[in-house]
Amino acid sequence: MSAPAGWHPDPESQGVLRYWDGQVWTNHRAPGQAATAPKDQSALVALGFALAILFPIGGFIVGIVLERKESWWILTLSLLFGFGWFYVFLRLNSGY
């Protein structure tokens, strides 16, 4: 089964599109598409940092609000995970 008719990368020239009519390559050529720049991921990185800080704080607040004797483990886990994430993010060399 062959490729459908349309513009495809030219097998003879890199960076050029060539029209395939469904059976043979035609002489019609067009410039290839320029490579797109990578998307800015800084917003996702900032969101990750914010969530890494807010989730342990939320767990701490839930533990305080419940005020049960067994809520100490919520506080302990929240602090451990919070400091763990903070340490991991400080140690990462993410380039930001």
Automatic annotation (TrEMBL):
Transmembrane segments: 43-66, 72-90
Alphabetic keyword roster: Membrane, Transmembrane, Transmembrane helix
UniProt keyword annotation of Transmembrane helix present: yes
Boundaries of every DUF2510 domain copy: 5-37
Protein name, as recorded: Uncharacterized protein DUF2510
Native organism: Nocardioides aurantiacus
